[in-house]
Specification:
Strands 1, 2, 3, 4, 5, 6 and 7 form a seven-stranded parallel beta sheet that branches. By secondary structure, the chain is of the alpha/beta class. The chain has one domain: Isochorismatase-like (Rossmann fold). The protein has seven helices and seven strands. Helix content is about 35%, strand content about 20%. Helix 4 links the parallel strand 2 and strand 3. It binds zinc ion. The site of zinc ion has 5 residues, from loops.
């Protein structure tokens, strides 16, 4: 059994005027990411949306000092970007679609993702979304440590930092044993 983990493809991370945007590099993967999401959803595979959620004031969160505020609870910035939002709304009631909020880079940090995957017998994860070298990377490292096989479609991940994007792709392949497709 396999799952698609869709990470942070939201307005703030992708739209031109998003608060922590990957800009054109992020919007360039829109069509491929949407297609991949449709593929998994229609096939009945488990589709997980792991989406950053922050509060406007959160003195205890380390990201506050590192990044501009983003994906603030109750704002448009947290909506999925482009047609992914429409597609998610159309399919969100399906039993193979699961959306949850995350507070850290990794989709496994402080969430029930691992048990949700294990109870379905899932051993293979495909990761898509942004940013390649931050949230996708931290999710991939946790997945590796938990024993999952990882696959990353190169044209479905992006970052605002292209060098870091390329470094992360090499790390997935050479250090985490991920399939880059
Ligand atoms: Zn964040």
């Amino acid at each position: 059994m396999k799952a698609l983990i869709s990470i942070d493809y939201t307005y703030d991370f992708v739209a031109e005027d998003g608060l922590l945007t990957t800009g054109e590099l992020g919007s360039a993967i829109h069509d491929k990411l949407l297609l991949k999401t449709k593929e998994f959803t229609e096939a009945g595979d488990f589709v997980v949306y792991a989406i950053d959620k922050h509060e406007r004031e959160d003195d205890y969160h380390p990201e506050m000092a590192l990044f501009p505020p983003h994906n603030i609870s109750g704002t448009k910035g947290r909506e999925l970007f482009g047609e992914l939002e429409t597609y998610y709304q159309e399919t969100k009631d399906r039993t193979n679609v699961y959306y949850f909020d995350k507070r850290h880079y990794s989709a496994f940090s402080g969430t029930d993702l691992d048990i949700r995957l294990r109870e379905r017998g899932i051993t293979e994860l495909t990761l898509v979304g942004v940013c390649t070298d931050i949230c996708v990377l931290h999710t991939a490292v946790d997945a590796y440590n938990l024993g999952y096989k990882i696959s990353i479609p190169e044209d479905c991940v992006a970052s605002f930092d292209e060098d870091a994007h390329r470094w992360a792709l090499a790390h997935f392949k050479n250090v985490l044993g991920a399939k880059i497709v």
